Amino acid sequence: MKVIAILYKGGEAAKQEPRLLGTVENELGLRAWLESQGHEYLVSDDKEGADSFLHTNIVDADIVITTPFHPGYLTRELLDKAKNLKLCVTAGVGSDHVDLNAAAEKGLEVMEVTGSNVSSVAEHVVMSILLLVRNFVPAHEMIERGDWAVSDVARNAFDLEGKVVGTIGAGRIGQRVLQRLAPFDCKEFLYYDYNALSPERERELGARRVTDLKNFVAQCDVVTVNAPLHDGTRGLVDAALLQHFKRGAWLVNTARGAICDAEAVAAALKSGQLRGYAGDVWDVQPAPLEHPCRAMKNPLGGGNGMVPHYSGTTLDAQSRYAAGTKEILENFFEGRPQTPANVIIGTKGYATSSYGQR
Ligand code: NAI
């Protein structure tokens, strides 16, 4: 079979660090195994435009592997051209770069390595909440500059203790964030999700469900976004919703950039409506130099905890999603059933309720 993969360029770092498996250089560690099975394996980062590697090679590929970190967009138009395609594998979690409705209509299977990096992201969320609430970035920048003015940073630093934290999306990551925040003695944990947790799970997490989004954000000091990107979440956090946030709230988004309106977030930060915004996901990746989320600040000059998309691609995560990709391929080649949680689109269409209510 012809297997193609769109991965990000790792450059010198990938040559020096073979555990950077998700790179073009290290090819998810699949080459020797795939070739020993008689398969053809082509890997590139070139994914945009009609002449790109992705657009020209998908035409006769049987399997395409992509990652959310350098998304190879599998649009309906592109899937129309992919006459031999049977399986799309996301090496990681989050398949919004695949037109899932088109894949379902065409009988293509779409798999993710579910759970492979959810702890990695949850840790990043906890870190981001803390660095915003405690005003860490400006304090560190002050030290690098050679300054020392405690009040300048303490005037915008708070404790997480006693605050209300809410997650939009209470799936694997959202729940792990709340679990990890348990010892911080927050005032309350809230969640907003069309899939209710069981009463027992709510009790374990100490989380209360709020079914109205405006009402939910109005109660939170910290909002963390942990829902997939789909038609129901694109632009969910826009200028209108931000008006309903508590003034001076913190917002962390490690889910997908396009869930939050970047211009609206930057404006809310500038006005002080938001005290901070952090995350690793951008509506355009790589983010252009002039992207509003790169340099936005709150009125006191802090509140920006943005980094490139890497929370789910720690070396530990890479080893898990590379192994998970191999397992999905093995199951496929040998006609074995896939691990149910990995199936986004199966032979009978949507196999998950995470990508919108239907
Ligand atoms: P999951 O499928 O376990 O949970 C997602 C939850 O979001 C589900 O409970 C679902 O019902 C809920 N949801 C969906 N639409 C919603 C809506 N409109 N409003 C409220 N809740 C909604 O997914 P998991 O593993 O927790 O991952 C969530 C997302 O995080 C992924 O889809 C991906 O976009 C992102 N992610 C980001 C990574 C990174 O490196 N920054 C790495 C891994 C995931």
Description:
Residues 38-341 form the D-isomer specific 2-hydroxyacid dehydrogenase catalytic domain. It is found in: Cytoplasm. This is Formate dehydrogenase. The chain is an alpha/beta fold and 358 residues long. The protein has 2 domains: 2-116 and 314-350, Rossmann fold (3-Layer(aba) Sandwich), CATH 3.40.50.720; 118-306, 3-Layer(aba) Sandwich (Rossmann fold), CATH 3.40.50.720. 34% of the residues lie in helices and 16% in strands. It has 15 helices and 14 strands. The strands form 2 sheets. The chain has a 7-stranded mixed β-sheet with strand order 2-1-3-4-5-13-14, with helices on both faces. Helix 12 (239-242) links the parallel strand 9 and strand 10. 1,4-dihydronicotinamide adenine dinucleotide (NAI) binds next to helix 6 and helix 9.
In short:
This protein has 358 residues and is of the alpha/beta class. 34% of the residues lie in helices and 16% in strands. It has two domains: 2-116 and 314-350, NAD(P)-binding Rossmann-like Domain (Rossmann fold), CATH 3.40.50.720; 118-306, NAD(P)-binding Rossmann-like Domain (Rossmann fold), CATH 3.40.50.
